[in-house]
Amino acid sequence: MFKAPNFKPSVDLPDLSGKVIVVTGANTGIGYTTVRNLAHKGAKVYLGSRSEQKGKLAIQQLEAEGIIAGQVVWLECDIGTPALATAAAERFQGLEDRLDVLTTNNISPDKSTYDEADKPAHDGITQMMMTNHIGTFQFTQALLPLLKKTSELPGSDVRIITVASSSHIDVPRARDPKLDFSTLDSFKEAYARDMFSFMSRYSTMFFLRPLASITHSKTSGISKLANILFSSALQKRVPANIICIFLHAGTVKSTFASDYRYYGILNFLMGLVGLTADQGSFTSCFAAASTQVRKNAEKYQGKYLVPFGELGETSTNAKRVDLEEQLWTTTEKYIEGYNLD
Question: 20 to 30 A from 128, CA-CA: which of 83, 154, 194, 288?
Answer without folding.
Answer: 288
